[in-house]
Amino acid sequence: MSTGFERLRKDSELQDYWIKRLVAFIIDSIIVGVATFIITIAVWIPFVLVAAATGLPWSMFNPFSFPFYSGILSILYFTLFEAYYGSTFGKRIMNLRTTKLDGQKPSLDSAFIRNISKIYWILVLVDTLIGLAGSGDPRQKVTDHVAGTIVVPTNISPLTQVASGQAGNRFCSHCGQKLSADAKYCPKCGKEQNQE
């Protein structure tokens, strides 16, 4: 069975999918980074003022721990938005959403499990690379496999429309699974399909 990397090299739809995921992650990382910076400055300034007034060491609140605070805020941001809204701002902009494998919105614990690697950027990279190195669904990171979740398109992107128009392919509007021309139900998520 082929790995996700092998399929990624050959499949333009999968390439388009991962480009959208990357752009969504960058957008969300910028949002989290700005929020972390504002919170860090807001909390750090009173500590410096108190330290100056009392003579306590101002290093009690280490400004170089920014990645730690950013990681904690990332987990909270991704977990809460995916559990309650099905997507983050970045995913929504890129027409993506996070679902359970049955097409339902992830629960709070499933969203937490799939986002635990966001505590530090290198863990997100490792999580993704190991997921692509396996022979399972190439759209799932390792934490997605554990949580039983997947990120799916909410509609088909222009690149996918060009490819599907040439090949006459259809895709599930709920999970993005490729369908046969006469499919009434998606074989992956089981949802009924609109016949066009």
Write the SSE topology.
Blueprint: H1 4-10, H2 12-54, H3 66-85, H4 89-93, E1 96-100, H5 108-115, H6 121-133, H7 142-147, E2 149-153, H8 158-167, E3 170-171, E4 178-179
Antiparallel strand pairs: 1-2, 3-4
Quick recap of the structure?
This protein is mainly α and 196 residues long.
Question: Overview of this structure, please?
Answer:
By secondary structure, the protein is mainly alpha-helical. It has one domain. It has 8 helices and 4 strands, in the order H-H-H-H-E-H-H-H-E-H-E-E. It has helices at 4-10, 12-54, 66-85, 89-93, 108-115, 121-133, 142-147, 158-167, and strands at residues 96-100, 149-153, 170-171, 178-179. A two-stranded antiparallel ribbon has the order 1-2. Strand 3 and strand 4 (178-179) form a beta hairpin. The longest helix is centred in the N-terminal third of the chain and has 43 residues, at 12-54. Residues 157-167 have low confidence and may be disordered.
Please work out how many helical segments DSSP would assign: 8
Q: Give the N-to-C terminal Cα separation.
A: 33 Å
Helix content class: 55-70%
For the largest sheet, list the strands in their spatial order: 1-2
The whole-angstrom Rg is 20 Å
Number of domains: 1
What fraction of residues sit in β-strands?
Answer: 5-15%
Q: On the 0-100 scale, what is the average pLDDT?
A: 82
**What sequence of helices (H) and strands (E) makes up the elements?**
HHHHEHHHEHEE
Class computed from helices, strands and strand pairing:
mainly alpha
Low-confidence stretches: 157-167
Number of strands: 4
| Main sheet summary | 2 strands, antiparallel
What is the overall silhouette? elongated
